[in-house]
Amino acid sequence: MDVRGSALWERVDVAHLAVLRELAEHGSVTAVARATTMSPSAVSQRLATLQRRLGVVLVERAGRGVRLTDAGRALAGIAASVSTALAAAEAEWQDYRGGVAGTVRLATFHSAGELLVPGLLDRLAAVPDILLETFDEDVSQDDFAGLTADYDIVVAHRSDDVLAPARGPVEVRPLLREPLDVALPLGHPLAGRSRVAPADVIDEDWIVPPAEFPLDRVLTAIAAQAGSPARVVRRTTHLPLMEKLVARGHGIALLPRHTTRDRAEGRLVLVPLADLRAGRVIEALMRPDRAARRAVQVVLDALVDEAAPYAA
After folding, report:
1. Higher pLDDT, 164 or 282
2. N or C: which end of the chain has fewer CB within 10 A?
3. Is residue 78 domain-resident?
4. Is the per-residue pLDDT at 203 higher than 80?
5. For residue 77, how far is the Cα from the chain centroid?
6. Measured in whole angstroms, how far is the alpha carbon of residue 19 from the centre of its chain?
7. Residue 37: pLDDT above 90?
8. Is residue 3 part of a domain?
9. Residue 300 and residue 247: Cα distance in Å, rounded?
10. 304: domain CATH number?
11. Are residues 184 and 166 in the same domain?
């Protein structure tokens, strides 16, 4: 069949386009199958059907997997635009019908979930037809954008002393900036200070997250300003564990002020840093087609409202 003269939309199915777009996001047929709850053979069949209808090669073998050709990447970009337009149309239709419903998948790193999710659920109780599913995802700050392939909203953090990482076609909604304070045991000689400078604390034993997490990047800035390397004795992403270790005198740490403040009383002291802007920026990341969904917009607005008191 000669398909060269027929319009694109006469030859393709939106569902087939969606599979191609997911392949561009996830990188493998197996990953697409997992994300779409389809079988790998069904994913491959849809890709084969799309290629046959268009009469052009969209994917090619690459080792044990496949990769998009130039034509495949071009059509995947079109597929993203189509998905966004369809989501926007569905949002308008829900507005017309006077209701909003759907499932929204929200991924947060641990301390942001602790800070924001309980109040978010309180707010969403007024919208019972929206089902919010929450997931824990704590990765290095440059890897949060990749999670938008699997979730509708990804709450990410990054240190505020660096430019935002390259994120590709991802929408970003600022939520808040959270200061980072130096956490000290109650009996520490510096615990009574109103502020501490990098030179005051650089020689301490430090408890920090893995490299490339915002808290660790701030410690790097402290070391640079003090002109001496930090002595790291323990690494963990679990903030409650960091708090317990500090409280028992096993080191000091950088901890987020709003998240830690309530648990710090009677256990440890939070002291702001002097001469250094120390904080993390918390943002919501979304693929454009997900951001266009009405249910996602409702959850996002509620998330922004929940973060507002901390953003002031």
Report:
1. 282
2. C
3. yes
4. yes
5. 22
6. 23
7. no
8. no
9. 36
10. 3.40.190.10
11. no
